[in-house]
Sequence to fold (269 residues):
Amino acid sequence: MSTQQYVNDIWQGDCAELLKQFEDGSIDLVVTSPPYDNLRNYKGFKFPFEDIAIELTRVIKSGGVIVWVVNDATIEGSESGTSFRQALYFRELGLNIHDTMIFRKRNPVPQIYRKRYTNEFEYMFVFSKGLVKTHNPIMVDCLHAGLELSTTTYKNYSKNDQVRSKIANPVKDKKLKGNIWEYVVGKNKEDQEAKEHPAPFPCELARDHILSWSNEGDLVLDPMCGSGTTCKVAAQLNRRFIGIDISEQYVKLAKSRIPAGQIQTSLLA
Ligand SMILES: C[S@@+](CC[C@H](N)C(=O)[O-])C[C@H]1O[C@@H](n2cnc3c(N)ncnc32)[C@H](O)[C@@H]1O
Fold:
């Protein structure tokens, strides 16, 4: 099998094994979320992290991106630190830690541990193989769009505040979005389809990353695709996709979320 033979379908298996059949540098973008520190008992669970990281590093194209959405368990009063260990392992394999982004939940689960604040975010590590080849930046409205400023104050840390005498341009309408992205989890209609899975990420999260780091026709992989969120959104956005999950039940769920015309196999094949 070659990568091409897996395209536009969802496959059951251990991704560390299946990915061995993919060619080097054949994937444009990975958007995925691994199991978090055995927090949930996924069906057929097996998670050889180092093997998976090595394969992903091999199959991603030069300039390609891996978005790794992850969080830590808290064990005996301490966060495990697994997220950062994984990020540093990808760095050891030669990838850039291009950005450490935050997925902020607008409806976080109330905190069950005492003496801690509610945990309301997960990490979204953005790794790249060399310099990122595709970035379609998401722009947002400027709070003070159009405001005319006669002078600008800026801070020079080696001196006191300084004032520029030059007339500043009016504040622009749009600016680059920040790297903390906020989503409602599990409540939108398109996310409700995934509720048989214990930990789907929002379609909007997958959409924002796929639009940012890939172009139409590119090949997007989710090697631990769960309910198939990445694959569903990639197909909607005219990208090619490959999904893999170790659980037969989740593969079936993922296939059910993709319209018949956008997937190679039939729903119940
Ligand atoms: C956090 S969930 C992914 C959820 C997914 N992002 C979604 O939106 O539904 C992690 C998934 O990894 C799968 N998994 C665990 N080990 C795996 C392996 N070795 N190969 C493939 N999938 C694996 C689990 O079955 C689970 O569905």
